[in-house]
Write a structure and sequence with these properties.
Layout (H helix, E strand, L loop, with lengths): L4 E8 L6 H17 L4 E4 L26 H13 L2 E11 L2 E9 L5 E6 L5 E2 L2 E2 L14 E3 L2 E5 L8 H9 L4 E5 L3 E2 L5 H22 L3 E4 L2 E4 L8 E4 L3 E3 L5 E4 L6 E8 L2 H8 L21
Parallel strand pairs: 1-2, 2-3, 9-10, 10-12
Antiparallel strand pairs: 1-17, 3-4, 4-5, 6-7, 8-9, 11-14, 12-15, 13-14, 15-16
Helix pairs in contact: 1-2, 3-4
């Protein structure tokens, strides 16, 4: 029987320079999280290395690996050893010339419970993901685990209310976002504040509109651009929200952190009874959502 209350942990880290170093740190953090009672551990986007999408270079495709593969073997062994569910984020090699930005869920027995391929792929200064990743084709399908039904999305997906809603409509009990987001170090402080505040508010909106807890795990640290530009300063601030958008836990903006929160999975039921947004949706009037724009 699935638990009604779970302890979750988010591993907010910087890049430590190599796959081996990063996985070693992850192993240590998962051990610490499990020892403190965590049943679900969420890792940041593309946690095995640097955020390589700051430039376009064919050599970066050497980072990709199959799923199942070496990293899922390592994460699965951790999950099995410590009896926790782990949500990781990998550069998936599906076939020659076909790659995805993929979140993978390891069950507490070490098996692969499922995966989600990032659907929304950005192409912005410093975030050249369209060069590397094919948009996902698995849809917005939650993944069943021993701790609940997980609606896993990835980074740029977090700006799209449609993605969160479709996960909710498919029965997700939690929304989870492995993330790599930050600002240009050259930006003025007020612009940095606006960007980070908008990010936090978007997640609170998803929690409120869907009556679901939201977990977002971001990386930290400055990662210079391989092309000599200013690079990206990842702003951390990983967080866990309740189904009314309340902040249950939040990590600092510039420090490694093992964040914990206790989530009552029954609270969504109570919140949805007093805020029945799903009941009052006018599904008969939403056909234009399938249009790019209403000209």
């Amino acid at each position: 029987m699935k638990p009604t209350n779970i302890t979750v942990s988010l591993v907010q880290e910087r890049n430590h320079g190599s796959v081996e170093a990063n996985l070693s740190i992850i192993a240590r953090r998962v051990e610490e999280a499990a020892a403190a009672g965590a049943q679900l551990v969420l890792l940041q986007e593309l946690h095995n290395g640097a955020y390589f999408c700051q430039h376009e270079a064919v050599a970066e495709f050497e980072r990709a690996e199959p799923i199942p593969g070496p990293s899922t073997d390592a994460l699965g062994a951790l999950a099995r050893r410590h009896g926790v569910v782990i949500v990781g984020s990998l550069f998936e090699r599906r076939a020659a010339g076909l790659y995805h930005n993929t979140a993978v869920v390891l069950e507490a027995d070490g098996t692969v419970a499922g995966k989600y391929r990032k659907m929304h792929i950005p192409d912005d200064p410093g975030f050249h993901e369209k060069f590397y990743f094919t948009p996902g084709d698995l849809g917005f399908t939650p993944i069943d685990t021993s701790v609940g039904r997980l609606g896993v999305l990835v980074c740029w997906d977090q700006w799209y209310p449609e993605a969160a809603r479709l996960m909710a409509l498919a029965g997700a009990e939690l929304l989870l976002y492995p993330t790599a987001i930050g600002w240009d170090p050259a930006d003025a402080q007020d612009e940095k504040d606006r960007q980070r505040d908008a990010w936090l508010l978007s997640h609170r909106g998803h929690a409120i509109a869907n009556g679901l807890p939201v977990l977002s795990c971001n990386r930290i640290g400055h990662e210079p651009s391989p092309q000599g530009h200013a690079g990206i300063e990842f702003w951390g601030s990983s967080h866990v929200l309740g189904p009314q958008g309340e902040v249950l836990a939040q990590a600092p903006a510039a420090a490694e952190n093992l964040l914990f929160a206790r989530i009552d999975l029954q609270r969504s039921e109570h919140v949805r009874r007093i805020w029945p947004f799903l009941r009052d949706r006018r599904i008969d009037a939403y056909a234009d959502l399938l249009k790019r724009y209403r000209d």
